[in-house]
Amino acid sequence: MTHILQLDASARPGLAGIDEHGSLSRRLTQRFVSGWQARQPGATVTHRDVGGTPPSFIDQRWIQAAFTPPERREPWMAEVLAESDRLIDELTAADVVVIGAPLYNFGMPAALKAWVDLVVRMGRTVDFDPSRPDDPFTPLLADRPRHAIILSSRGGAGFEPGGALAHMNHLEPGLATALEFIGITRIHRVSIEHQEEGGERLAASLAAAERRVDGLIAQLSELYQASREATVPA
Ligand SMILES: Cc1cc2nc3c(=O)[nH]c(=O)nc-3n(C[C@H](O)[C@H](O)[C@H](O)COP(=O)(O)O)c2cc1C
To answer: To which protein family does this belong (predicted)?
Structure first.
């Protein structure tokens, strides 16, 4: 059965349409997860709410610990790396990573960037071999075909690929680069626009995003079903 990691980065705790000032990106992650579980009742979910409880920022001690080879680490270093280890274990266990990510000031929320800085780690999610200067990095999460779904919401409009403001959107491109670097290369993106304007444009954008989420659930769960059948001996 598939395992989902649901990450929510909105600072707004509730769900748009249900709670006052609720989050649109959380509405999409919730829709993806509940739709996935309806199709695959045995699917399991870990929910990591980085918007509600932001991870730590890396600091000098973290960098020193992370770049000390495990066999030379001092006891304090294990403590400093414990949060990163926990987040990496959650990510490694997932088949599908569903990320609710609002656009904040043209990029990802700081809480999500803090998560990225804790999960992109030498020796755990990526290897570095200086003896191969032309290709020194090996992504360690390429061991199986994980999918990442970036579900975003924006106040304005035109930030989608090909849109008038696409060059000002550093959220999906930045997040996708980090995920690809560690081996998660199957990346899908869905977004809602016009949150600030509201009204019909927001309603149409939300409806289109929800249709796309439903389509992704159908497409990816068929893919996982087919790969499971292919690995089950006849
Ligand atoms: C701190 C902050 C910065 C924002 N920056 C942008 C921005 O750069 N571009 C934009 O279109 N909307 C921006 N917005 C609007 C949000 O993207 C929009 O409210 C979105 O729906 C938030 O996601 P959520 O509904 O999941 O909380 C910003 C909102 C906040 C709170």
So the answer is: Belongs to the azoreductase type 1 family.
